[in-house]
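Sample entry (591 residues):
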Amino acid sequence: DEGFTSFFTVHNYNGIRFVLGEINANSMHSFRSVWGNMYKIIRKCNTILARIDEAADMTTKERFEIIGYTRFMRAYAYYNILMDFGPPIILEDKVIESNAALEEYDRHRSTYDEAVEYICSELEAAADLLPYTVPLMEFGLPTKGAAYGLVARIRLIHASPLYNGGSVARTFFGNWKRSTDGELYVSQTYDESRWALAAAAAKRVMELENSGTPMYRLHTVQADSDTPDLPEGVTSDPDYYNEWPNGAAGIDPYRSYSEMFNGEAVIPVNPEYVWGRRSGAIREHTRMSFPQRLDGWNGLCLTQKVVDAFSMVDGRSINNSSELYPYNETDFSKNVQTFSGYRLNAGVNNMYVNREARFYASVGFSECFWPMTSSTSSGYYNQTITYYYNSPNGKGGVTTAQDYPITGYVLKKFIHPSDSWGGTNARRMDKGFPIIRFAEILLSYAEALNNLTASHTVQIGGETVTLSRDMEEIKKAFNQVRYRAGLPGMDGTEDAEEVQQMIVDERFVEFLFENRRYYDVRRWGIYEEVESIPIRGMNVEGTKEVFYTRVIPNTARIGSRIVNKRLNWLPIPLNEVRLLPSLDQNPGWEE
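Predicted structure, serialized as tokens:
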């Protein structure tokens, strides 16, 4: 429910095929190779571990370093199987010869619990051997923090309703049993201590130090003369006007958020990247958002749900806006506003005025200003882009039928003001992709603590930790993310249900297009509820006079979208299931 595109057949967006029901166990397109490729990685890792002692000239330091990286990558391969296909076949250290009889390969899948414990134990072992940091030229290699960050993510998912007993786990997996022994693949017994373990895992990352200083913190840019003042009249959070990090004052929220993604910040030294890498794919895929008439493809579209999820500048929702910062969808702004290097044009519909900083860092809307300053060709920089039917980049103006924004919005999150695809000297800044961000660790910690109703003592990495629901700790972690965005946070009076909803809403906006929402709505057990809401956008069939009307886009692609429990995971490729008698297919994909 974050985005949609109409051109998957051209640019291989197989995620769209998935939600259209065109993926099945026999027709998986590029997904077919994922299962097999992960096991190729696992086999190579097992081979390295089995034969490493044959390298007689290797130093002890080199040997331990290779073992650490190898165990991490093996665990990461299993993690990817677990996330997308469910419980894997766990081979442990076994290397099956390529000419072995088929019976040697036949074995049953693990349970979900068994997979989590195995993967986390491997990551813990890898972390003991991994470095705290890597040289700048080796940015992207996993570190101790990357291993701990993955453990924190996995532990949170394992504690979540879909995999931790209760009605959601029963609805999805209550009858799913292993055919070889009748064991339930997903436990139907609730275990609250899992939340404590998840909180402890996140806290460990938060407290990780190197040479006496914290390893990770949120990326911020200091306020300057171009930074707008914090909004007036915000009384819900008594700490809001304090200096960062105890409040939102003293930093520039727009630049703090946007420069983490658009290439402005120095990628390898970003303190928020618990684990990240440079991404040529992200850089190249910005073209999917750029205006078609300026050599882009105009179609990486956000939904109206995303647009509506962003707060007003004072932290209120669009349905509860204040008199000082009102929300309305009628009429257009009268004046140009400039702040933090961003230009908000006059003539913009009022629904896009007075919004929070992350909105402007993420959303391309009609009448949005595109700098594209690397281009030196007239007409290719400093352009206002519109998506009305009769405008150059609207449905009736594009030169290729599918290259228009079907919702009236495009993603701008990874686009730098200098990025351009058309004209002389057009170039794009290098991009980084944060596989795990510190903001995720903070929100995971808050969520895990919020789900505790009693005190629990757990073991994490050989350490004993006792945790209970502590509203001050929840507030401190959650509010850092809000303050960085220039918004007020919790005031500490919220009950557990309110806190959970605030975390759900915050993760939707904060991690937009960072590969988290897909998994979040599933682990929370709200996938069917939230995905059943029809995709809406602006009326791209109309001129400016009627464009700003919420409609279900007139495209068969969106109309064909399906919501089904079986889409919790991908199917295991049919050829694999047919080869191995003990390999059970995922629920709903058996036919």
